[in-house]
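Dear colleague,

Thank you for sharing your sequence with our group. We've completed the structure prediction you requested, and as agreed, I am returning the results in plain text so they can be pasted directly into your records. Please verify that the sequence below matches your submission; if there's any discrepancy, let me know and we will rerun it promptly.
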Amino acid sequence: MSSSVQAQDRVERFEALVMPHVDSAYNLARWMTRNASDAEDIAQEALLRAFRFFETFRGDDARVWLLTIVRNTYLTWIRRQMPLQNSAEFDEGLHTDLEDAVTPESALLKQTRSQEIRQAIEQLPAEYREVILMRELEQLSYKEIAAITRSPLGTVMSRISRARSLLRNRMRSQAAEVQQHD
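Please find the predicted structure tokens below.
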């Protein structure tokens, strides 16, 4: 086979196996960075790395493979950006539900609740935030999360449990604060 045919085959395989998961890659990067621009950079860098090393892909789940690359790209980025990480602003517009509400009141309640949940997630320590996002938003299995994070299955399970507990406690605290002010 000629090298141009091999290159074309590689591009077609990459497009078929990896490209359907670009949205998941961006979503994970977005939640981890808390910034749309940084997420785009990380997702793009991860895709470039995935393409560059595509011949090493031997698994049967390209989504897990790509999200592992996204996570590793994020970890590399965060080491370089550590002092700047806390100054990144969260862009509410990117994660606001665009469904039309029945009434302005219900729209406001829905937006307020979504914002409270996002804030609670953002306050989680990174090791809890990443696993809860992979599980709840990307709907990855515990086994897939363990592969991506290179953590034992039990560690993943306990981190998800702890993240859920922290989220519940934060949401209860927020609700209690609202009741005190009413």
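Summary note from our side: The first helix runs from residue 3 to 17.

Kind regards,
the structure core
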